Amino acid sequence: MTTTQTASDVSTLIDGLILEENHDLPLCRLQLTLRVGSTSDQTAQGTAASGGPAQMGLCNFASELQRRGAGSRSRAQIDETLDGLGAGLSIVCWHDQVLYEITSLREHFERAVEILADVVQRPTYPGDESERLRRELLANLDDLRDDDSGLLHRFFSRELYGETPYGRPVAGTEESTQALDLDGAHAWHRHHIVTGNMIAGAAGAISQPEVEHLLRQHFAQIPAGPRRDEPIPSPPQRKGRRVLIVDKPERTQSQILIGQLAPHWKDPSWLPLHVSTVAFGGTFTARLMDEVRVKRGLSYGASARLGNGRGQRSLYAHVFPSAEQTAETVELVLRLYEEWAEKGLRPGELDFIRSYLQKSHAFTVQTADDRLGLRTRLQVCDMPLDHEKTYPARVAGVSASDIEQAMKTWLLPDDLLITIVATADSVLPSLQKLPGLRDAEFEVVPYDSF
After folding, report:
1. Which CATH number fits domain 242-446: 3.40.50.2000, 3.20.20.370, 3.30.830.10, 1.10.275.10?
2. Are 53 and 180 in contact (CB under 8 A)?
3. What digits encode the pLDDT tens for the residues 377-407?
4. Cα 162 to Cα 89: distance, rounded to the nearest angstrom
């Protein structure tokens, strides 16, 4: 059973309520979701609004720290109580939202919700935990140096989105992490934990009256306040091909993203371009995989993806060949991208992919938790809430002319960003000789310069 509404007696506590009932198992889940994530880092009241590095990572820092001391409990006491209840508590910060979630057996659920209520409303922000968290965040940045795929996406986003919010990493930088403090965390909490900025969601063996009771009983201290999600500006579209080589020593394999800016999720072109992108590189039998892996064995995987969110995201292809085959792989993907943009889908691709997307959609909404996550994201992004139900029919209605128009409008094969994590000395000379990169702008940056 599925319901979505804001009841009149809880509307002063939250901006929206989403419920996905499933009584097959005696498990319950309650979520509170902030309408903002790390894109808000440089706009929170009470903190420096200059756009400087000190603000990056604040949302992640402040929200994670809520988990480490709240109400009358220390971090250890929170963990001990959760263990005794067999409950799970998580806080996750993304660019577009922060998710607070508690899960437990139905018989222990209200006691578990009490802990979530303390975490959301009454964090103590202990100083010792603040310093421990700072050390952990810095250690995570050290670990990132060993994660070629993580480095690839970080540098690609920084280059593509520039100074706009999606160009800033969720967890910040070493410099910004060192500058984070408890005053900033308290200010972030005061500004963002307000009624109009929160969406409630529940899933599992729980009814709407029960959810409303929990909200009234345990979350009445959330102060009144408006939505805090400000529009996310789009970066300017740069002309010409750019090659960013993230220079890392002794790489035997290259990680490569080739992409561009894409339409907003709300744009009418988004769905036709999504259908076309999945046909191009979204399945194991797609053109990109077939040409790169099956026919030539250049990369174990080859995929293309169209992003979505509150702001304008990206379209990119991802491959990871050996170092000596980097130039050959880049040349091939560029040629395939050009062919895709100029000639569109091949015969049979559209019919196959429409059928594939309609059938596979069932797996994305298979469980109550899946549906809750999707519908929460839709509400955060101000998308139509019937999106999940109408998706198969809308995919079926995408025509060849819709796809042709979307591709003509959005695909920019001459203005692609090519980001490569590799050893520069081993790949740069061969890349510079490629005809498709003859006029490209090349830049080499150290892999640890993030």
Report:
1. 3.30.830.10
2. no
3. 999 999 998 888 999 999 999 999 999 999 9
4. 34
